[in-house]
Write a structure and sequence with these properties.
The chain is of the alpha/beta class. It has 3 domains: 1-48 and 223-288, Response regulator (Rossmann fold), CATH 3.40.50; 51-189 and 300-350, Rossmann fold, CATH 3.40.50.2300; 360-500, no CATH class. It has helices at 8-20, 54-65, 78-93, 109-117, 129-141, 173-180, 205-218, 223-249, 271-281, 360-386, 391-395, 398-419, 422-425, 430-465, 475-500, and strands spanning 2-3, 25-27, 44-46, 69-75, 97-104, 122-126, 150-154, 184-188, 284-287, 290-293, 303-310, 313-321, 331-334. The strands form 3 sheets. Strands 5-4-6-7-8-11-12-13 form an 8-stranded mixed beta sheet, with helices on both faces. Strands 1-2-3 form a 3-stranded parallel beta sheet, with helices on both faces. Helix 12 (398-419) packs antiparallel against helix 14 (430-465). The chain is rod-shaped. The chain crosses the membrane at residues 361-387, 399-419, 439-457, 478-500.
Length: 515
């Protein structure tokens, strides 16, 4: 049996070669979903959680918050592409809409633009640490962060990875952190949740962790970073030991094939290899990282830890227990996620049309002023009617005064109607209101201006002809015809406009605002 390799690409090559020599391989950190393909990697096992299994934790989170629209962004590498493809299938199976799936090779700028253009609010990312700095630099520039967004990434990044200065971005570490602050990650549990529970070795996880920290300090290692791999490596070695121990005790496997003692092992025979595979497939024990067992594909059925970056530090906010059920037979426990807006973001924008209308205060003020004008014009109109028969009024053509005052009253009314909007009378009456105030303003203007023009024109003719201004004459019919001609012309224009070119209601967007 072989322990390793930790790198997925190397593990693939080793597994293909090891199978030719009937050797079983157990890895502690190779996470590529491709290694779950039993047809290609028949004798591969791993004690770390495969990247594809994080998809179930992500799906559980999506269902927990009731999201129906999500997006993905991944780097163009086989490990990430395979995991995202499996995630897309899982989303489709569970009725979740994948808004867009973006991929990039070197620079993610265009893909970030696409995410924003397509309204992606819940984003799941699969990319390595170096690319993560580029992604969040672009997210900062394009404002793809804040209370309306939720970013989900894989774990395994180094502590405070955004502070690493590798000259790969044009952003400062603070700008990158501004964009990623509050992001959520899924990772395998670095240590059993029950530190005082005895493991297969007889020691508790707390005791093993203390030994590890002591050795790490002696060797000058960063225990916070190494521990996430150390527990899986520890359990991988125990898995191999238990399989070897079982091989010495069980002369036959479940199928009845002879396994033979270990000292009779041969690279040419497949019986011992099959025995190891069967033993590991049914193996279950309490390890440093928790309960250890394997799926039929050789993947670890481990506990997944959900963490969130809060104030620059990763804080545990929940756990997910995977049971291998395609219909999400799982146990999700989320407790302390801190959302920037105080509540989980929406998975899409809610379109709400808010009409821009005249403030009621302005309408009331304008209405009061118009009412004052109507009152004053009405008083003048009443006075004109009362004093109609007096010589001074009669010679001044009181009929035109009355028509002019009526036009002024109509203009005041039309000004008030101009301020009345759909929120007062209802959208269904908006077209009728527009038509009425157009007619009112036009005809009122014709009366008011026509009467004034007729009287001015009369005065002009009398002054030019040097006639007696106070002597009644034949000027009245000409004035009346001029006024009625203008009025009739306006009526004809309004009828043609109303019948053949009616007013239509159209909604024009003046911009969007995200709340």
């Amino acid at each position: 049996m072989i322990l390793g390799s930790g790198c997925s690409e190397v593990a693939k090559t080793v597994s293909l070669a090891a199978d030719l020599w009937n050797i079983v391989q157990v890895s502690y950190s190779a996470s590529s979903p491709a290694l779950s393909n039993r047809e290609a990697y028949m004798s591969f096992f791993r004690t770390n959680v495969a990247d594809s299994l994080y998809n179930y934790a992500r799906l559980a989170i999506i269902k927990h918050y009731g999201w129906q629209r999500v997006a993905t962004l991944h780097e163009n590498q086989e490990a990430y592409s395979t995991a995202v493809n499996l995630f897309s299938e899982l989303l489709a199976t569970n009725g979740i809409n994948l808004t867009t799936s973006e991929s990039f090779t070197v620079e993610p700028g265009e893909q970030i633009d696409n995410l924003k253009e397509k309204g992606a609010w819940i984003i799941f990312g699969n990319f390595q640490e170096v690319m993560a700095r580029k992604v969040f630099c672009e997210a900062y520039k394009k404002k793809l962060y804040g209370k309306n967004y939720a970013w989900f990434l894989l774990g395994k990044y180094s502590p405070r990875w955004w502070e690493v200065d590798d000259n790969s971005t044009s952003c400062t570490s603070q700008q990158i952190y501004t964009a990623l602050d509050g992001y959520i990650l899924t990772d395998s549990v670095p240590m059993s949740l029950y530190p005082d529970r005895p493991t297969i070795s007889g020691h508790t996880s707390a005791e093993i962790a203390e030994v590890f920290r002591t050795r790490a300090e002696q060797d000058g290692l960063d225990d916070g970073h190494v521990t996430s791999y150390a527990s899986d490596a520890y359990d991988a070695m125990w898995s191999i030991a238990l399989a070897l121990d079982q091989a010495t005790k069980s002369p036959n496997d479940d199928s009845g094939n002879a396994a033979g003692p270990l000292h009779e092992f041969s690279y040419e025979t497949r019986e011992t290899r099959e025995h190891f595979i069967n033993t590991l497939s049914t193996l279950q024990f309490e390890g440093f990282s928790g309960s250890v067992s394997f799926t039929d594909a050789g993947d670890r059925e481990g506990l997944i830890e959900i963490r969130q970056v809060i104030d620059g530090e990763e804080t545990v906010v929940g756990h997910y227990s995977f049971h291998g059920d395609e219909q999400l037979g799982s146990d999700l426990n989320i407790t302390d996620i801190q959302w920037p807006g105080g509540s989980p973001p929406k998975d899409e924008t809610t379109e709400k049309i808010v009409f821009s209308t005249t403030p009621r205060l302005y309408l009331y003020v304008a209405g009061g002023l118009c009412a004052a004008g109507v009152l004053f014009a009405s008083i003048c109109l009443l006075a004109t009617i009362i004093l109609w028969e007096r010589s001074a009024f009669y010679r001044a053509s009181p009929l035109f005064l009355v028509l002019g005052l009526l036009g002024c009253i109509g203009m005041y009314v039309s000004i008030f109607l101009m301020g009345v909007s759909s929120d007062v009378i209802g959208p269904e009456n908006q077209v009728l209101l527009c038509t009425v105030r157009s007619w009112t303003m036009t005809l009122s203007f014709c009366l008011a201006y026509g009467a004034l023009f007729a009287k001015i024109y009369r005065a002009h003719k009398l002054l030019v002809s040097k006639a007696n201004l106070w002597k009644p004459g034949g000027h009245f019919p000409l004035m009346f015809r001029s006024l009625m001609s203008l009025f009739l012309f306006c009526v004809i224009v309004l009828i043609v406009w109303t019948v053949w070119f009616p007013i239509q209601r159209d909604v024009v967007s003046s911009g969007n605002e995200v709340r």
